[in-house]
Design goal:
The protein has 189 residues and is of the alpha/beta class. It is built from five helices and 15 strands.
Length: 189
Amino acid sequence: MGMIAQIREDIVAARLRDPAAHSGLEVAVLYPGLHAVWGHRVWHALWVRDLRFLARAGSQITRLLTGIEIHPGATIGRRFFIDHGMGVVIGETAELGDDVMLYHGVTLGGRTRDSGKRHPTLGDGVAVGAGAKILGPVTVGAGSVIGANAVVTKDAPADSILVGVPAKARTRTGKEDVRGILTAPEYSI
């Protein structure tokens, strides 16, 4: 997929997920979550070519401009959307599938200083509520929803709802609206 097609796909994905988005132009110009993802693609390309200092420097510039820190070593799928974005941190060995959505204040962090895989893996279609922390080399299965302020430290199967500190998983019924789950008071801490 070409760069222009990817940018268009990102704008469409943002408009579908954010009811406050009024136009593609507004999204392209004013959404720092998209700017951070677009920057990450450039810095990740440098990272995988072993231009790591330049990649880290670029990612820090993106962080300064957007308030979103994505390590250039992180692997991110298509149509990734960060809504509001301020305070989002994504660690070096994090892996995100397609159609993942994060709200502000989310951390995909590590729990150890060991080398190797130390950050989370989120499957396709995972949605993460504001302030949630997913820590360590855990895997959250596709279609799962993580409630606001949850702290996830254990693997979760596909189609789970994770809430609480520490987060406990329950199975989604499939009838639940992701947007409704992320904003319902009973899923917040």
